[in-house]
Write a structure and sequence with these properties.
single chain; 129 residues; alpha+beta; Arc Repressor Mutant, subunit A; two-stranded antiparallel ribbon; 5 helices; elongated; WH-like_DNA-bd_sf; LysR_HTH_N
Length: 129
């Protein structure tokens, strides 16, 4: 069964002012790709933030309503595509385990949100005709 679409207000990363007379509104999403594969997106940036906040991949995934295996795969993909790992993972077990952002992970997250702000500024400056 296909996954239900998120409501537009949760799906559009940037949206411009609504033009009442025409009923039109410019919306757009931004993500970064490497070799045709998603490297960084809104969801991945939030996952990095949640890892920093919660200190474990499992807790970060739970906080987003995401399965642990999906979160693990996203982190593995980002770590492989990045010049250096974004997330440092320690195996669990009796001693706990955990996850934390590396300096490269902090930088990638900050850079993505900077691009999002620039994109929002661009969307705000457009006129829909």
């Amino acid at each position: 069964m296909p996954k239900p679409k998120a409501p537009p207000e949760r799906n559009a990363m940037a949206k411009g002012p609504e033009h009442a007379a025409e009923g039109l509104q410019l919306k757009g999403r931004i993500w970064l790709e490497k070799d045709g594969h998603t490297y960084m997106s809104w969801g991945r940036a939030v996952l990095l933030e949640r890892i920093a906040l919660h200190g474990t991949l499992a807790a970060a995934a739970r906080s987003m309503g995401m399965s642990y295996s999906h979160a693990w795969n996203l982190v593995e993909q980002m770590n492989r595509m990045a010049p250096e790992p974004l997330v440092d993972k320690q195996a669990g077990g009796k001693t706990g385990g955990g996850a934390s952002l590396t300096p490269a992970g902090e930088k990638a997250r900050e850079e993505f949100w900077r691009l999002v702000k620039q994109f929002q500024t661009w969307v705000d400056s457009r006129k829909v005709q």
